[in-house]
Amino acid sequence: IRIAVQDGSELPATFGMAEEKIDYLIAGGRAAMFETLADAEDDGEAGRQAAAQSCTSADALIAVAASGHTPYTIAAARQARSVGCCVIAVVNNAGSPLAAAADHEVLIESGPEVISGSTRMGAGTAQKATLNLLSTLVHTRLGAVHDGFMVNVQAGNQKLVARAARIVSALSGQPMDRAESAIRTTGGHVKPAVLLLSGATDLATAQSILSASGGNLRLALSKLPGKV
Q: Are 28 and 40 in contact (CB under 8 A)?
């Protein structure tokens, strides 16, 4: 679960996902992120209640359990699926109850642990890579990536402002000083900054074109004057 939270917590800054669109169902609650509350994983009713409060037919639940037998996670998956929520099980053992409770199974056959007794090494590392790949692919499809650049990056500090400017410069073909100026004009948002440096007459026009393109930068660029 901690691995899933780690991946989810990166999505707003990396891909611009709204914080309110992410929820974490954790056996033992948020305290379990920092304390060992292993017995909470056995509380299936708590998992059911957590999913009942958080999951709707408009949501997707990614249920993570190496064994695929965790009662809390299985109950949460079953409850979520019962209301039409899309449930994805990320498991390391084939034929598990969690996979059976899900709409889609992602089976990571990571094999026996080198040090027997815990899944924090091989299985945990495989889960981290899988969740990273899954979230990256989803946000690529959602338009948060353009030509290998994170165009929804949130420029929340000096390092990220500089990164955003470099992305704008690379995508627009304009020098850094112009890219930095455009980033300041757009309040740190890459996509409208690229449009400004690619032919949009002003910020309002850039934002309007972007909105009409569903946030897709490639489509927005094609709508600029003189573009085919």
A: yes
Q: Which helix (DSSP H) or strand (DSSP E) does residue 16 occupy?
A: none
Tens of pLDDT along 44-87?
Answer: 999 999 999 999 999 999 999 999 999 999 999 999 999 999 99
CA 149/CA 167 separation, integer angstroms: 7
Q: Catalytic site residue 180?
A: no
Residues 190-198: contacts with CB under 8 Å, at least 24 apart: 190/149, 190/150, 190/151, 190/152, 190/153, 190/155, 190/164, 191/151, 191/152, 191/215, 191/217, 191/220, 193/164, 193/168, 194/151, 194/168, 194/221, 195/220, 195/221, 195/224, 197/168, 197/172, 198/172, 198/224
Q: Which of 41, 45, 105, 109 is catalytic?
A: 41
The pLDDT, as a whole number, for residue 227 is 63
For the ranges 56-60, 110-114, 127-131, the lowest mean pLDDT is seen at 110-114
Q: How many CB atoms lie within 10 A of CB 164?
A: 26
Sign of the torsion formed by the C-alpha atoms of 161, 163, 165 and 168: negative
Residue of 107, 56, 104 lying closest to 79 (CA atoms): 56
pLDDT, averaged across the chain: 94
**Is 41 among the residues known to form the active site?**
yes
Tell me the percentage of the chain whose pLDDT exceeds 90.
87
